[in-house]
Amino acid sequence: MVHTESGTFQRFDIGTHQNQAPAREFPQPAPVLDFVWYPTATIHDPSTFCFVASVRECPVKLLDASDGRLRASYKIVDHRERQIAPHSLAFNLTAQKLYCGFEDAIEVFDLSRPGEGTRLPTTPSKKSKDGLKGIVSALAFSPSYSPDESDAQPEPLMYLGGGPQAGVTQLRFNPLRPHILYAGYRGHASGTIYSWDVRSNVDVPVEIFRTTDKPAARSNQKMHFDIDCAGRFLSTGDQVDQCATGEAGL
């Protein structure tokens, strides 16, 4: 699945041919901010073959990946009753909850029951300098981390160093090597993906991936990347309507 600047989702059925047309296209009424597959999605099980999308000025959508129909929607509104479209989306490891990141907060929806989400502020107030200020632009859950509820704490466990000091657009853990964390960036670092081994020294990345050997053009667009379910291949898009796939590293 890819989403384009025109606000359209394109689903490809990957085969042996390099040049392929999308199997299905699902146009949206506004720009797409983020999307994420349902964790156990497979075309062989229609009930799981779906994904969640954040579209500007729309409720969060749960869309059927076979035909694009709307299965469910999740509303996030601010104090002025304006619709909020989150900048980042992530399912928890059991796929029972959906986390939506936006400015100064994360909205959590319990998918087992209808109703409004639970808002988790990332900063005490607009004027406060404490906490995590600004837009929550990326969310990810480690497949190997299953803490007890009593282990929850507000303090960060670690800080990652050696990054490009640019805006983070995406985070992803390797499905089969959950100690490897990948991060994508915007601005002068667009077109690069950094990775860290969170078991050891996180002051420097273990590997840096580039979509091309040529210097990437500076861009504030969110260049989405993903890792296959076997944790072997990393794929990402670029500004010229192409997708690149390579080994996911160590």
TrEMBL record:
InterPro entries: SWT21/TCAB1_mRNA_Telomere, WD40/YVTN_repeat-like_dom_sf. This is DUF2415 domain-containing protein. It comes from Hypholoma sublateritium (strain FD-334 SS-4).
